[in-house]
Specification:
Elements: E1 4-6, E2 17-20, H1 21-28, E3 31-34, E4 39-40, E5 42-43, E6 53-57, E7 73-76, E8 89-92, H2 96-107, E9 116-117, E10 122-123, E11 128-129, E12 134-135, E13 140-141, E14 146-147, E15 152-153, E16 158-159, E17 164-165, E18 170-171, E19 176-177, E20 181-183, E21 188-189, E22 194-197, E23 202-205, E24 208-211, E25 218-220, E26 225-226, E27 231-233, E28 240-242, E29 247-248, E30 253-254, E31 259-260, E32 265-266, E33 271-272, E34 277-278, E35 283-284, E36 289-290, E37 295-296, E38 301-302, E39 307-308, E40 317-319, E41 324-325, H3 326-351
Parallel strand pairs: 5-6, 6-7, 7-8, 9-12, 10-13, 11-14, 12-15, 13-16, 14-17, 15-18, 16-19, 17-20, 18-21, 19-22, 20-25, 21-26, 22-27, 25-28, 26-29, 27-30, 28-31, 29-32, 30-33, 31-34, 32-35, 33-36, 34-37, 35-38, 36-39, 38-40
Antiparallel strand pairs: 1-2, 2-4, 3-8, 23-24, 40-41
Length: 356
């Protein structure tokens, strides 16, 4: 498309592209107001943008920043089309944030590493490599492992014996995939993640904690993204399963036999104990803790730092410790905050001398 070019000297990121306001307006089907020849090469918030940046205004909370912004181009929600400000161009379009997300790949195109196997990589006996596979320096591919077409295994990764990795999947440097794991197509695993580890299961016998052998699998679906330093255990006698399209943040722990549905969001530092089940589209917010053998219904939401000890019905939002329906949790918190004041008033009454 005209108006888009590569720029090797962009200050907005390595290999960033440049694009004109006119081209942006065409791509997002928006109304262009101002100089269509304005060229931008990066993205920044309104208060930190300069003339080379694209920014957005989609929330009234940030409307005051429009008057001071130095951004070259701003995507503006129709509600704020007349907000004071002087960017060289503004583009009026519904849902600016969504439109921005669509533009990012054009501004910051991701180039796939060249296909090939590094000389320092080690490929086990019977491993199967698809077409256009990339294997980085010092990576280890176990025996009988299978890598699909276009799979990328970064430097220092370890892929265990018999592991299957789907087409277009990417392992960033330093990922470990234990034996017994399967990764779907287009799955992304970030650095430091450990997939298919043994779960934490012991039986106290003969005066010691005896380890329960883990023989289940760890099955990761298609289009799953798993954040840095997240750990997902294999099943003990069942499988651990992560559904298609689910996105998992950094520093999440998912225990053995957990089953997570499709298109779920699991936010940083959440912990999910063994044999819990999470339905499609559920959201588990940061630092939430889920006890084992419970069920979270489809579309349910668990608030940050909630402690969940029982089942949550589909579509409900729970919060607090112990977790309960969100409105009930808010009332309980409000009552608790009032308690201190009530106690002070009561102590004052009891402490007053007898007037008689």
């Amino acid at each position: 498309m005209t108006g888009i070019a590569r720029s090797n000297s962009s200050n907005s990121g390595d290999g960033a592209s440049t694009i004109t306001a006119e081209a942006i307006a065409t791509l997002v089907s928006g109304e262009l107001i101002g100089d269509g020849k304005t060229v931008i090469s990066g993205v920044a918030p309104l208060d930190r943008a300069d003339a080379t940046h694209l920014s957005i205004l989609s929330n009234g909370k940030y409307a005051s920043m429009m008057a001071l912004t130095k951004a070259g181009v701003v995507l503006v929600d129709p509600e704020f089309r007349d907000v004071a400000g002087a960017p060289r161009a503004r583009i009026i379009v519904k849902q600016p944030l969504e439109k921005l997300l669509a533009l990012l790949p054009r501004l910051y195109p991701q180039e796939s590493p060249p296909a090939g196997v590094a000389s320092t990589a080690r490929i086990g006996k019977g491993a199967s490599l698809g077409e256009r596979v990339t294997i980085g320096e010092y990576a280890i591919i176990g025996s009988r492992a299978k890598l699909g077409n276009g799979a990328v295994v970064g430097a220092h990764c370890v892929v265990g014996d018999g592991v299957s990795i789907g087409d277009g999947a990417r392992l960033w440097p330093g990922v470990t995939i234990y034996s017994g794991a399967t990764l779907g197509a287009r799955t992304t695993i970030h650095s430091g993640a450990r997939i298919g580890c043994d779960g934490f299961g012991y039986v106290f016998r003969d005066g010691a904690h005896q380890k329960i052998p883990h023989v289940g699998r760890c099955i990761i679906g298609d289009d799953v993204e798993i954040g840095a330093n997240t750990t997902i255990d294999r099943g003990s006698i069942d499988d651990t399963v992560i559904g298609n399209g689910t996105k998992i943040d950094n520093l999440v722990q998912i225990a053995h036999n957990v089953r997570i549905g499709e298109k779920c969001l699991i936010i940083a530092q959440a912990g999910i104990a063994g044999s819990a089940t999470i339905g499609d589209g559920a959201v588990i917010a940061g630092q939430a803790g889920l006890s084992g053998h419970i069920s979270i219904g489809a579309g349910a939401r668990v608030a940050a730092q909630a402690g969940v000890f029982g089942d949550i019905p589909s579509g409900e939002t729970w919060s607090g410790y112990p977790a309960r329906p969100h409105r009930e949790s808010l009332r309980a918190s409000a009552a608790l905050f009032k308690l201190a004041g009530m106690m002070r008033r009561l102590e004052k009454l009891l402490g007053e001398p007898d007037s008689t």
